[in-house]
Design goal:
Two copies of one chain form a homodimer.
Chain A (H helix, E strand, L loop, with lengths): L3 H14 L7 H11 L6 H13 L11 H22 L3 E2 L2 E2 L1 H4 L2 H19 L7 H26 L6 H26 L4 H28 L2 H4 L5 H4 L5 H9 L2 H10 L7 H14 L2 H21 L5 H15 L4
Antiparallel strand pairs in A: 1-2
Chain lengths: ~325, ~325
Amino acid sequence: MHIYSELLELFLAYLKNENLVQAPENLYEPYDYIMHLGGKRMRPILCLMGYELFSDESVKESTLPYNLAMAVEVFHNFSLVHDDVMDEAPLRRGKETVHQKYNINTAILSGDLMLVKAYDYLAQTSDKYLPKALRVFNKTAAEVCDGQQYDMDFEERSDVSIAEYLTMIELKTSVLVGASLQLGAIAAGASEIDAQNLYDFGKNIGISFQLQDDVLDTFGNAEKFGKKVGGDIIQNKKTFLILKAYENGNPDQVAALSELMSSKPSDEGQKIEAVKSLLEQLNIRQDTELLMAQYYDKAFAALGNIDLDDERKKPLVAIVKKLMFREQ
Amino acid sequence: MHIYSELLELFLAYLKNENLVQAPENLYEPYDYIMHLGGKRMRPILCLMGYELFSDESVKESTLPYNLAMAVEVFHNFSLVHDDVMDEAPLRRGKETVHQKYNINTAILSGDLMLVKAYDYLAQTSDKYLPKALRVFNKTAAEVCDGQQYDMDFEERSDVSIAEYLTMIELKTSVLVGASLQLGAIAAGASEIDAQNLYDFGKNIGISFQLQDDVLDTFGNAEKFGKKVGGDIIQNKKTFLILKAYENGNPDQVAALSELMSSKPSDEGQKIEAVKSLLEQLNIRQDTELLMAQYYDKAFAALGNIDLDDERKKPLVAIVKKLMFREQ
């Protein structure tokens, strides 16, 4: 069993050796660009961990299912390229987004190609496990599209419920975390039920991660978080924190929040502080962390259902804990 | 063996029974909209014909591989949705394009979903044939993206060769015609070599069709063609006709054509007539029809390599001839 840092090194070496560029270069260069823009590579590593969990005690590094790790990473990056077009985002991981660096048509078509290439990597799976892997991948890919659509729909709506928000983040971000683990497990010949439990572990951890992202965006330490704190507030995003505050606040607090969340102030810092102060009055951070803990517990209950030594689950547990408690 | 009109009816009945819309509706309605916009349904019908060619003498209508027919039709429509965004086209089959009716973000995301749904239909293939079908589909899908990129690249270039143009149309439109037939053949258990010959038949017929489209767009009878004649000329498209004229013309003719093809005249009819007259002087229509005949012969040579009774190939030959000689 390899730990995260070892698998990351192996995956990056594999990625480096893949020649992603071919003719027509205008199509493949953006694919190469986004794939080398960095990131934690969480999904491919979880895929490899899912494999090692159910495979031989001593998996040879050469036989790890890199193709599946690539499939989930290429898919994830495809979704970033198209989401950035839809959100008109200029930056991704501190660098220009694809449509910003090239143009919108290039971002659309290169994204399409990447989605096909994700399936191409998937198709390298042995015939024995390919049908099952393809069906998991299809379901997940459609759900990620659904999630992005809900996210866009919610921007236009003022009556989004907390249940709807949780469904949205589950679809948009968490199912792919679960599927990454599940695909690795499938390739290792795990039973249906074990693969499903591992999926449930990943999905619930993914929701917990996303809630944590919401918390850190507002309450995080700017230096450790690596992003501008308060970005969600400035963009008037209806995150869990805001929706919960609407639910918990008295009429005056709701009215004050509503006004703040539709304002475009000249002093951004003042707006951030005012919203934070309201959220603090209402104990929203604590409420969110409580919900995070519930998803976290649900995840570990699913992992507990998998009948393997705790020792074997250690690298997976270690990386999840590290990501979970990265910034408190 | 069913003939085209019978298979069309069966496919349309199948499509009608498929419930394409689910939540979130903003994502699935555009998918439903484009899928019911009509069209000849050439690719799905060819897919069913490819199946019947190699399957039992008496295929039951209930056991036709509708899932594969849907896969190629949904994929084709996905490519139309995204191409229309890239080309800023307002109309498709006489109706509003998806981005025109909804908006660009919807067209991007619904297109993405459709690409996933195409794979979802593909995944309904029996496990025995799925890996092979998936690999054919992936190769084809990537080539269609390549073709669209070359098409966009060529708009910016003034030195496109005829060989490059032929490669572009092969990738952008013809490989999917070949793959539609091939996928049907694969699902019927055809041998590798038979499926390949059928693919070659479809691909070469597809190139021939596209060249015919170029001819009809300029020399067709407006009423029969169903589109505005001269559209390619007005859009300054570098079709085979124009590239061939550049090759065959004397310096004066090349200069005249070059000026015409970069002009935006107030009188479109005059421009169309001037270009047509130049093309006629240079016998371009005859040259194009000669090349069409070469691809057509190549296609039928490949079909001839398939060791089946001519009787059995009849419905396929009939529809290809009908499409080929639709407007002379």
